[in-house]
UniProtKB/TrEMBL annotation:
UniProt-listed Pfam families: HTH_1, LysR_substrate
UniProt name for this protein: LysR family transcriptional regulator
Keyword Transferase: no
A GO molecular function held by the record: DNA-binding transcription factor activity
Keyword annotations of the record: DNA-binding, Transcription, Transcription regulation
This protein's record includes keyword Transcription regulation: yes
Stored PANTHER family: GLYCINE CLEAVAGE SYSTEM TRANSCRIPTIONAL ACTIVATOR, HTH-TYPE TRANSCRIPTIONAL REGULATOR
SUPFAM superfamilies per UniProt: Periplasmic binding protein-like II, Winged helix' DNA-binding domain
InterPro entries: LysR-type_TF_proteobact-type (IPR058163), LysR_HTH_N (IPR000847), LysR_subst-bd (IPR005119), TF_choline_sulphate-util (IPR017786), WH-like_DNA-bd_sf (IPR036388), WH_DNA-bd_sf (IPR036390)
GO biological process, one term: DNA-templated transcription
Assigned protein family: Belongs to the LysR transcriptional regulatory family.
Gene3D superfamilies linked to this entry: Periplasmic binding protein-like II, Winged helix-like DNA-binding domain superfamily/Winged helix DNA-binding domain
Domain of life the protein comes from: Bacteria
Amino acid sequence: MPDRKLDIGWPRIFASVARLGSITHAAAELGLSQPAVSYQIKRLEEEVGVRLLHRLHRGIALTEEGEILFKAARAGVELIDEAAKEIRKKSRLPAVRLFTDYGFASFWLMPRVAEFRRRHSDFEVHIIASQAIESDIDGTAEIAVMFGQADEFSGDAQLLMPERVVPVCAPNFKERFAPFDTADAIATAPLLHLDTNAEPRWLSWEDWLAAQGVSRKPSHGDLGLNTYSLVIQAALAEQGIALGWLGLVDSFLENGSLVRLGPELERKDSGYWLITNPPASNVTEKLSAWLVEECQ
C-alpha cells in the first residue's frame, strides 16, 4: 500500500503514545495490541534508565525526560515518513487516465490495451468507464473517448471511429427465424434497442429501417436495454436482432458468434471522438497516438 508507514520500531510507538496521551489509542492507531505497546515502552524506559511516562487513571502524561525524547522521536518519525513518501512517489510509474463508456471499453479497448501496456511498460493506464454513452466527460481524465456528433465537441476533438451500424444476430437465431433477406423481413423479428431517457444521439432502429424505406414502431416482442454491452449480450443469447456498431462488434463477426443481416448505415459526422485535456503530457501523447493508429 502506498501510504503504509515504515516499521521503525520504538520511535514511532513512543511518538504515538506521547502524541495521543494513551497507550490504548496508540495501539489502535498502530494496529498493535495494548500489551505489545506497553512492553515496548517498558523496554525503552529500561534502556534510557528513567521513567518516561506517568501512568494516570485515564491515559498517560510525559515526564520531563519523556518530553525531551518525544521531541526527538516526533521529528525523526516525521522526517522518515516524508522521506519514504518522496521515495515512493519517485518510484511510482506515471499514469494516464482514460474516460469512456462501457461499450467502447469492453468491446474495443480491453482486447487491445494489453498490447499497448506491453509496448509502453514505463507508465500505467487507468480506465474510467461510464455506464451511459451520453455521460459528461470526467474532468480528472487526461484523455476521453466519447460518443457523439461533431458539433458536440471542441475543434480539437479527433474522430476515431465513424458511426457505422449493421443488423446482427446470433447464427442460431438466424437459422430459426430466417430468411432475413429484406429490411421488411428484419422488421418482423424481435429487435434489441439501446434505450435512453433523452433523444438518442446514435443511429437507432428507426433510423436504419427508414434508410431502407421501412416504417416500424417498437413491438411487444422487442427488448430495450440501457447499456450497449447488454444489447450485444442479448444478441449473443439469441434474444433478437441488434444494431452492431462496426468497430465494436468486429471480433464477434470475425469469430462467427454474430452474423450480418443487412446493409450498413453510416453517419460520418458522428461516432467516437478522441478528446484530450491540456496540457498534454508525454504519456498522454503516446496513448493518443496509439488510439489513432489502432482506429485507422
